[in-house]
Amino acid sequence: MTARVFLLIAICYLTIICTAIEVVVDDYANVVISNGANSSDENWATTFYQEHNIEWNDLPEERRLHFENMGWSQEKWSKETFETKDWKELSKDELEAVITLGWTEGEWMDEDPDEPECYGKSWSNLSPEERSAAEFLGLTESRWYTKPAVEDFTPVIIKLSIPELEKLNLDYLETLDVPVSVLDGTIVTDDELVDRYHMSMSQYIKRMRAGSMLYLKYEDQEVFKSHISSVIGSKVLQNLMDALRNSPLREMGYYLDYFDKIKLFDYNYSFFVGGKNTSTPMHYDSDDFNFLWLVEGRKRVVLIPNDERTYGKYDCLDNFFEGHSCWTGIDILHGPLPEHAIEFEMKPGDGLLIPEKMWHAVKNLEPSLAYGIRIDSTMYVLDE
């Protein structure tokens, strides 16, 4: 091999390497927020649970008005439940009930307690004494911690035609110059508390189509979500809720009548845009109603029941708190499926109902866009 040929080959290799580096650098060459836990992005659910520890009169006026719109008052805000009390604050009857359920003072006061054995049973499998204690504490079958095993475990998928939202597709998003905040779409840990990268929506869609592994996910109420909400937020909320009100989910008992009466906000809709092979890792959400509707692309979904069969098998990461999604850090999208898991593919027009606290993970099989609705009744004060 002559020196000239060797030099040409070396130049070619260097060109390829530099091009690859340029692509990677270009993909992430944006303002990086430090870890999401310290960023200015506001997770609304987090804020709710933090604010709920603040006295009603200490809330900023605009937040009090916000909660009043959801049915809260000073009396309801300040009302304690047995779960919020210290051991010594429990009444004699409450103390007897929690002891019957298996609690000890040490576990009750522990910041990360081991739950009593009965918490792993379904309501129907509680002993008469355990059920009586639970009922005294205000717990019911619907509010009990572990669901009964459902042998015929099948996903609830319906077809919906929503022409108004079909227009808000990837081509449309590519015309928008609004700023967006995106994250690494390959991680398997909590993706709500990770570094984020900023660019315009148009730039992001172009990069996604070129193979970027960045993922745009908006749930709850983040600062950057307000930018896109000003353009499409009301359209997504109105048209998706209109479709759901008249969908089979109402007759099936999943869409409840009170959903028609509560006031919905920007944090109630979700928004997912990701390229091929980007994913959302295994987790569960605590919403009463969690619905995902696919506008464009294809998604692979893996569901695992969260019931008696899987109780205690998966743990939340250390950063979990009540009201936040529970992330396991386990990759269930590669390799053999875990026991009791099912998988299926979503196509355009498919709507998936994800039951409360159902373990799930999602992978985009091609560039995809989905809108969703999430409702958590604990955020509202509902009339008896």
Please explain how this structure is put together.
The protein is an alpha+beta fold and 384 residues long. The protein contains twelve helices and 14 strands. The chain has helices spanning 3-28, 44-51, 61-69, 74-78, 92-100, 105-109, 128-136, 163-166, 170-173, 201-209, 225-245, 248-251, and strands spanning 32-33, 156-159, 179-184, 196-200, 214-218, 269-274, 279-284, 289-296, 299-304, 326-327, 342-346, 350-353, 359-364, 368-375. It has a nine-stranded antiparallel β-sheet with strand order 1-4-3-5-6-14-8-12-2. A five-stranded antiparallel β-sheet has the order 10-7-13-9-11, with no helix packed on it. Helix 5 (92-100) runs antiparallel to helix 7 (128-136). Mean pLDDT is 83; it is low at 5-49.
| pLDDT averaged over residues | 83
Number of strands: 14
Tell the overall outline: globular
Strand content: 15-25%
Instruction: Determine the structural class based on helices, strands and strand pairing.
Output: alpha+beta
Major sheet details = 9 strands, antiparallel
Summarize the helix and strand pattern as letters. Answer: HEHHHHHHEHHEEHEHHEEEEEEEEE
Low-confidence stretches: 5-49
